[in-house]
C-alpha cells in the first residue's frame, strides 16, 4: 500500500526554498506565547530526580489524566494521553473499525486531509458528506449517507478548514445517528478553546457509548511541538485503545505531560480569552483587506483559518506555488481539503503579519 505525502509538507518545503520574503500562512502553528506556568514547569522538571526521566505510564501521567477527567466530566480510566490529536484520532478510528460493524468512515467535505489518510492506512473506506456554504454539517445528509457498513462518523468542530462551529443540536443528532447504525461518532475538538461564536458544544454533553472525543493542547497552549493530546473512550472501548497506543508508542513524553499539567493548573481563563481576542482582530484585518480584492471568503466562527476564493484563480497546488513566488504569501490549496472547495485557498491566521499578507494578496489580485 502506498501513502501520499500530505500537501502541507510540499507547500512548506516549496515556501522554504523560495527566493525573497514569504509570509507563512500554511500550518496551524500558533505564534503567541505559551502560558508562563508551562515554562515554569519545564524549568522545574529539569532539576528532578533521575527516575523522572524514565518511562511514564503508557496511558499517560495519572495526575494529568485525573485533571483532564475532572475538566471533561468523565472517569479517568476513559482517558488515554496520546501523541497529539493526530494519534488520538488514529486510535479512535482504529477502535471504531475494530468493532467489525462495517469498514466505512463518513467524513465531511471539505475535510482535514489527515482523516482520509488515516482511513486508508487503517483499511477503511471513505464516504463524504458535503458541508453547506457556511461549513455547517446537516445531520439529515449524514443520516442519508449512513448504512450498516458505517463504522464511524468523524466531526471536527470548530472546523478546519471552514471555521464552522456545530451547535448542540447538530452534535446530538450526530450521536443519535451513530447509535441508530451501531457506529461511533468521533468528535475532534482540538480547537474548542478557539470558539469565536459562543456556540461550541462538545459531544461529551451527550451521554452515549457511541462517541469518542479527541483533543490536544497543541493549539490551546501554543505548543504544537510538545505532542500531548488525549482521547476519551466509552468504558467498553478503552482497553484495546490503550493496548494499541502501547504497541505503537510505548508511552508519550513525560516532561511534556508534566509541563502541560502545570499549565492547566496554573493558567486562568484570561489567557485563552486574550488569544481569542487576538484572532478576532486578525480575522477582521484579513477579511477587510480581502474585501479590496473582491474575493469571496469565509468568516470563521472558530479555529483560525480563512478560506478565500479569487475569481479565475482556482485553489490548485500550482496556483499556491505562484502566490509564493509572486505575492510572497504561502497558503494551502483548497483541493487539499476535498472536491467542494477546489476553487478556494486556505490561510492560517497564526502570524503577526496577517494584515501585511492580505495587503500583498490585494496588490497581486487588483
TrEMBL record:
The lineage of its organism: Archaea, Methanobacteriati, Methanobacteriota, Stenosarchaea group, Halobacteria. Gene3D superfamilies: Type I PLP-dependent aspartate aminotransferase-like (Major domain). InterPro entries: Aminotransferase_I/II_large (IPR004839), AspAT/PAT-like (IPR050596), PyrdxlP-dep_Trfase (IPR015424), PyrdxlP-dep_Trfase_major (IPR015421). This is Aspartate/tyrosine/aromatic aminotransferase. Pfam families: Aminotran_1_2. Belongs to the class-I pyridoxal-phosphate-dependent aminotransferase family. Keywords: Aminotransferase, Pyridoxal phosphate, Transferase. It comes from the Archaea. One of its GO terms (biological process) is amino acid metabolic process.
Amino acid at each position: 500500500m502506498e501513502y501520499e505525502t500530505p500537501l502541507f509538507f510540499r507547500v512548506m518545503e516549496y515556501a522554504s526554498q523560495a527566493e525573497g520574503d514569504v509570509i507563512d500562512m500554511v500550518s496551524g502553528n500558533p505564534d503567541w506565547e505559551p502560558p508562563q506556568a508551562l515554562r515554569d514547569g519545564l524549568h522545574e522538571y529539569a532539576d528532578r530526580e533521575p527516575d523522572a526521566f524514565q518511562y511514564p505510564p503508557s496511558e499517560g501521567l495519572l495526575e494529568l489524566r485525573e485533571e483532564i477527567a475532572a475538566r471533561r466530566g468523565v472517569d479517568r480510566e476513559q482517558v488515554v494521553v496520546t501523541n497529539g490529536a493526530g494519534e488520538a484520532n488514529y486510535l479512535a478510528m482504529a477502535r471504531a473499525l475494530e468493532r467489525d460493524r462495517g469498514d466505512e468512515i463518513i467524513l465531511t467535505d471539505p475535510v482535514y486531509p489527515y482523516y482520509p489518510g488515516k482511513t486508508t492506512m487503517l483499511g477503511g473506506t471513505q464516504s463524504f458528506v458535503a458541508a453547506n456554504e457556511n461549513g455547517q454539517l446537516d445531520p439529515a445528509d449524514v443520516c442519508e449517507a449512513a448504512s450498516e457498513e458505517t463504522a464511524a462518523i468523524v466531526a471536527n468542530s470548530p472546523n478546519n478548514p471552514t471555521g464552522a462551529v456545530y451547535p448542540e443540536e447538530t452534535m446530538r443528532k450526530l450521536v443519535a445517528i451513530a447509535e441508530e447504525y451501531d457506529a461511533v461518532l468521533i468528535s475532534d475538538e482540538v480547537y474548542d478553546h478557539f470558539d469565536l461564536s459562543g456556540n461550541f458544544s462538545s459531544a461529551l454533553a451527550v451521554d452515549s457509548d457511541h462517541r469518542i472525543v479527541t483533543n490536544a493542547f497543541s493549539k490551546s497552549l501554543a505548543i504544537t511541538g510538545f505532542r500531548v493530546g488525549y482521547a476519551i473512550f466509552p468504558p467498553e472501548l478503552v482497553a484495546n485503545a490503550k493496548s494499541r497506543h502501547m504497541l505503537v508508542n510505548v508511552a508519550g513524553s513525560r516532561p511534556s505531560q508534566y509541563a502541560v499539567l502545570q499549565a492547566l493548573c496554573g493558567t486562568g481563563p484570561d489567557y485563552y480569552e486574550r488569544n481569542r481576542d487576538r484572532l478576532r482582530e486578525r480575522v477582521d484585518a484579513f477579511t477587510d483587506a480581502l474585501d479590496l480584492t473582491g474575493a469571496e471568503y469565509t468568516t470563521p466562527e472558530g479555529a483560525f483559518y480563512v478560506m478565500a476564493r479569487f475569481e479565475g484563480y482556482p485553489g490548485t497546488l500550482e496556483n499556491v506555488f505562484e502566490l509564493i513566488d509572486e505575492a510572497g504569501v504561502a497558503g494551502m490549496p483548497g483541493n487539499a481539503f476535498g472536491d467542494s472547495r477546489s476553487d478556494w485557498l486556505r490561510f492560517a491566521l497564526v502570524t503577526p503579519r496577517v494584515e501585511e499578507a492580505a495587503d500583498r494578496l490585494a496588490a497581486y489580485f487588483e
